[in-house]
Design brief:
Structural class: mainly alpha
CATH topology: Four Helix Bundle (Hemerythrin (Met), subunit A)
Order of helices and strands: HHHHH
Number of domains: 1
Largest sheet: none
Helix content: over 70%
Shape: globular
CATH architecture: Up-down Bundle
Radius of gyration: 16 Å
CATH superfamily: Flagellar protein FliS
């Protein structure tokens, strides 16, 4: 029996059925992996790789931006933050800005830590106020 397939099926079921914080954390982790690759590409001056990874991260950030609730102040802040992150990625790609890359990496790391913390709390019936529309 392939143990990995059952783990993957379990993981996929959690992503599809759990609260939006779990899915958000997984998406931020994907962006974080892209940022690590962008850092390596920047150091190696591999501009094609930097652009490819940056574009992938921008697609994820765009999706997160698009699912924000716009009828709450939290949702509007959420949307604004993702627009700023998208612009930061654009600057990193176009200007090869290592400082902006470090700032964005720190921001994404903090978001992952916050979601890790939220996911460790017992599940409540109260809706999240992070701005997810789910």
């Amino acid at each position: 029996m392939d143990m990995e397939s059952s783990v993957n099926a379990y993981h996929q079921s959690r992503v599809l059925s759990d609260n939006p914080d779990f899915l958000g954390r997984e998406l931020y982790r994907a962006v974080y992996r892209d940022l690590l690759g962008m850092d390596a590409a920047l150091k190696e001056q591999r501009w094609d790789r930097l652009t490819n990874l940056g574009s992938h991260a921008q697609l994820i950030i765009t999706a997160l931006h698009d699912v924000a609730k716009t009828d709450t102040p939290e949702g509007m802040a959420f949307k604004t933050a993702h627009l700023a992150m998208w612009r930061m990625l654009n600057d990193i790609i176009r200007k090869h800005d290592a400082g902006t890359l470090a700032d964005l990496t720190q921001t994404i790391t903090e978001l992952i830590h916050q979601l890790d913390y939220r996911l460790q709390k017992p599940v409540s019936q109260e809706p999240a106020v992070l701005g997810w529309s789910g």
